[in-house]
Design a protein that fits this description.
Blueprint: H1 2-11, H2 22-30, E1 35-38, H3 47-54, E2 59-63, H4 67-79, E3 84-87, H5 93-104, E4 110-113, H6 121-127, E5 132-137, H7 152-155, H8 157-164, E6 169-173, H9 178-188, E7 195-197, E8 205-211, H10 217-228, E9 233-236, H11 240-252, E10 257-260, H12 266-277, E11 283-286, E12 301-304, H13 311-318, E13 328-334, H14 336-349, H15 353-364, E14 369-372, H16 374-381, H17 385-397, E15 401-415, H18 419-424, H19 428-439, E16 448-451, H20 452-459, H21 463-475, E17 479-492, H22 499-529, H23 534-541, H24 574-587, H25 594-602, H26 607-611, H27 628-645
Parallel strand pairs: 1-6, 1-7, 2-4, 2-5, 3-4, 5-6, 8-13, 9-11, 9-12, 10-11, 12-13
Antiparallel strand pairs: 14-17, 15-16, 15-17
Helix pairs in contact: 2-3, 14-22, 15-22, 24-27, 25-27
Length: 648
């Protein structure tokens, strides 16, 4: 078998040798066993499932969290003559059907999907009839609640895999601690011998830490980029507005820099990324939205203008430097206020206990099947959409509800053919139905549209018939169809429950996530403050030991770090009481929940603050630099004082 593997490596992929760990993973999979591959960023994880896919009879299903990454992988595979495809939100109906037809005919070797796709009932029904040889899960640390980048839809992958009868798995990640690795192996039945970890040490990366005041960062960054002339460079920041500020500051100093963040539209992000890949832009100042799947091997420096969320994020982000093996510089600017900013996002996400109970009561009171209007529920209970998705996932995993797919509320179309001519081609009964349907549409200059539920009731026809007809028209090419207004469908499995007990359980889970994030922040600060080799400390965190010292970090080169500045700016001052009192006085009647008022003062958006336009008020962010928990405690204290002073 090894000779066959090597033959495919050379003939199909044009490679002469394997990177560390690749052959061991591939041999385990082809022997029928599952595997966990923990390789550093740029360590060649994708080959571990792409090559076996060509030596197995069925389909290799690849779960990946990023559309851009899926597209790059599929384009590269197709260029090699490999039958690969992706299903994502950018495909039109015709492309989607072509892929499904290839799957049914067993003409596809690899199919890339997002984890959310496995929550689509129609897709599950289709894929359940396909022979799946392997389920490969990229960014597998997202499966574990102990992981640093937890995503609710990843939690359900093991359940979906069991339903589909998939027997073999490959979990891939660049950042897994021993605890996360153990969790992944337990979920997918991976044997200890098939947990392949190649090591995080990159000898060409020089790691440095620089404690500094907030107002010193611009000058430090500018000096480093000029002094070292290490371009291309990526500068990581926490906030979108910071990326704009730093990019502008560097541009003003004659450095070819551009900002990159999730607030930009996708076309602009793609253009900036392409500019960086071609070396037309030499410095990217980015939030964490930038970097995953970026295959640029000549990045010479990574600067963390703000601290990363965790040691896992830090290792993943510095791993984008020096993939060509040449010396590269990585530097972390540290200030205590950065920790506050990141932790405040975590605390701001945590829903109030009464909001959790409200969602549970509303969901479990539904009659059998129901559609969730996430937008309305999110606003009603002041819970961010991602947090609401997490809460619904908890209910699914506890088998209180079952997700049965998604439906779209709004159907829009434009005609590619003569409307009257197409309708006239059908028999009399179908013509009657079609005329009723299209007459009920709101006509636009280019696009017509219907609200599906409303029109179904209006013309007294089943929703399913309307959807089927529009889908058929699209398939024939008579119309171009766009679907919007997605609603998730669920089925209640066990409504006779004590919602208070569930609430306590889920409140505890959200509190544990806060504690985990606090621990991760402390680990970053500890890495920055402690003496000793930085590389040795990092490797120990990931369950590895390094003989000796790296020779080129702060400690190894005799460069002292000193204490982390910024803590004095986090102290509570007398005038802060007045700000809290003013907030309670002005907005207490509307923001009765202490967490909602604290979000306002700390400058953290929420559905309620956005809906009431309080996120644009003068009080929004008035205590933005202070720790959320400190402000929350003061809000509760001052509210009690005010109520006791004015009991009537």
């Amino acid at each position: 078998m090894k000779s066959k593997i090597v033959s495919v490596l050379k003939a199909t992929f044009g490679l002469e040798t394997f990177r560390p760990g690749q052959l061991e993973v591939i041999e385990a999979l082809l022997a029928g066993r599952s595997s966990l591959a923990v390789f550093p960023t740029g360590g060649g994880k994708s080959l571990c499932y792409q090559l076996p896919a060509l030596l197995q009879p069925g389909l290799t299903l690849v779960v990946s969290p990023l559309i851009a990454l899926m597209k790059d992988q599929v384009d590269a595979l197709q260029a090699l003559g490999i039958e690969a495809a992706r299903i994502d939100s950018t495909l039109d109906g015709s492309e989607f059907r072509q892929i499904l037809e290839k799957m049914r005919r067993n003409r596809l070797k690899l199919l890339y999907i997002a984890p959310e796709r496995l929550g689509n009932e129609k897709f599950i029904q289709t894929i359940s009839r396909i022979d799946i040889s392997l389920l490969a899960i990229d960014e597998a640390h997202c499966i574990s609640e102990w992981g640093h980048n937890f995503r609710p839809d990843y939690l359900k992958l093991a359940y979906h895999a069991k339903y589909l009868g998939i027997k073999k798995f490959l979990a891939l990640t660049a950042t897994a601690t021993p605890k996360v690795s153990e969790n992944i192996c337990d979920l997918f039945g991976i044997e200890k011998r098939d947990h392949i970890q190649t090591g995080f040490y990159r000898p060409n990366l020089s790691l440095h830490v620089t404690p500094c005041e907030i107002n010193e960062k611009d000058q430090f960054l500018l000096e480093r980029i000029r002094e070292k002339s290490q371009l291309p460079t990526i500068v990581y920041v926490t906030l979108q507005k910071t990326s704009e500020h730093v990019a502008q500051m560097l541009s003003n100093e004659g450095i070819n820099a551009r900002a990159y963040h999730a607030g930009m539209n996708s076309d602009l992000r793609a253009e900036i990324q392409e500019s960086f890949m071609k070396d037309e832009t030499t410095v990217i100042v980015a939030t964490i939205a930038f970097g995953m799947g970026i295959d640029k091997d000549s990045v010479r420096a990574i600067y963390h203008y703000n601290i990363p969320k965790s040691l896992e994020n830090y290792v993943q982000e510095i791993g984008r430097a020096g993939r060509d093996g040449l010396p590269s510089h990585c530097e972390l600017f540290v200030n205590a206020e950065d920790c506050t900013t990141l932790l405040n996002f975590t605390y701001g996400d945590t829903p109030a206990a009464h909001a959790i109970k409200g969602v549970i009561d509303e969901v479990l009171s539904q009659e059998n099947e129901f559609k969730l209007n996430a937008y309305k529920v999110s606003r009603k209970y002041d819970i961010r959409p991602l947090v609401l998705n997490t809460l619904m996932t908890y209910l699914e995993l506890d088998r209180k509800i079952e997700h049965i797919g998604a439906v779209f509320e709004t159907y829009q179309w434009k005609w590619n053919s003569d409307e009257e001519g197409v309708i006239a081609s059908f028999d009399e009964n179908r013509q009657l139905f079609l005329r009723k349907l299209f007459s009920a549409a709101k006509r636009g200059r280019v696009w017509d549209k219907i609200e599906c539920e409303e029109v179904a009731e209006q013309i007294n026809e089943p929703r399913e018939r309307i959807v089927k007809a529009l889908g058929y028209f699209e398939e024939k090419g008579w119309i171009e169809l766009k679907l919007t207004g997605v609603r998730q469908r669920y089925r209640v499995l066990n409504p006779a429950l004590d919602s208070s007990e569930l609430m306590e359980r889920y409140v505890s889970r959200f509190e544990n996530r806060e504690k985990l994030d606090e621990i991760r922040m402390a680990q970053i600060i500890n890495l920055a403050e402690k003496s000793g080799c930085i590389v040795c400390s990092l490797l120990h965190y990931f369950g590895e030991e390094f003989p000796g010292r790296c020779g080129h970090c702060n400690d190894c080169t005799g460069r002292e770090t000193g204490p982390i500045p910024g803590t004095k700016n986090l102290l509570w001052k007398p005038h802060h009481d007045a700000i809290v009192d003013d907030g309670i006085s002005k907005h207490g009647p509307l923001l009765q929940d202490s967490r909602a008022l604290t979000r306002l003062l700390c400058g953290l958006t929420s559905p309620l603050l956005t809906n009431t336009k309080l996120s644009k008020s003068s009080e929004f962010g008035s205590l933005t630099n202070l720790p959320f928990k400190q402000v929350l405690a003061k809000v509760e204290e001052r509210k009690d004082m005010i109520l006791n002073t004015n009991p009537g």
